[in-house]
Amino acid sequence: MVEKKIKKTTPVKEEGKNTPTNKGKKYIEAVGRRKEAVARVRLFKDKPGFIINEKTMEQYFPLERHRQMIFSPLKSTGLENNFFISVKAKGGGLFGQAEAIRLGISRCLVKIDEEKFKSILRKKGFLTRDSRVVERKKYGLKKARKAAQWSKR
Predict the structure, then answer these.
(1) Distance (Å, whole) CA 111 – CA 20
(2) CB under 8 Å, gap of 24 or more: what pairs does 58-65 form?
(3) I want to staple 96 with a disulfide (CB 3.0 to 4.6 A). Which of 35, 57, 115, 144 is the partner?
(4) Number of domains into which the chain is organized
(5) Beta-carbon neighbour count of residue 127 at 10 Å?
(6) What CATH number does residue 48 fall under?
(7) Is residue 38 part of a domain?
(8) What pTM was estimated for this model as a whole?
(9) What is the domain range of residue 58?
(10) Is 22 inside a domain boundary?
(11) Residue pLDDT tens, the chain, 153 long
């Protein structure tokens, strides 16, 4: 007797814990990248605060311009003291990490209310991922494009 093989179908995903439309989540998470820097940003609706790699904002970013860059999406949307922000940043330098955090915060805000915040953040350029990275060194050259200077002796 010949047996028929039954195709197994995958179940349709229902709205669960990992969907951004779920209102019962504890936090909203997004990832931002810049050069070699990667930042995982979480926004909690608790009391306001900011922690980066278990350090305060002032300890991790001593320069004021980096802190202003990070808070610029929150200032432009008017949500400066509404969230507790937890960040895990790695790779790159401080400037690259600051830009990665800014992109992560902007993406979190868009997940909160896309209609309201996306146009504001898009106009300011906070939702655009800056894809410029360091060009690789080529064989036979000193750097990516710098060649040895030849003399006419």
Answers:
(1) 7
(2) 61/94, 61/98, 63/94
(3) 35
(4) 1
(5) 18
(6) 3.30.230.10
(7) yes
(8) 0.78
(9) 27-124
(10) no
(11) 566 666 555 554 444 444 444 455 799 999 999 999 999 999 998 889 999 999 999 999 999 999 999 999 999 999 888 899 999 999 999 999 999 999 999 999 999 989 999 999 999 999 999 999 999 999 999 999 999 988 776
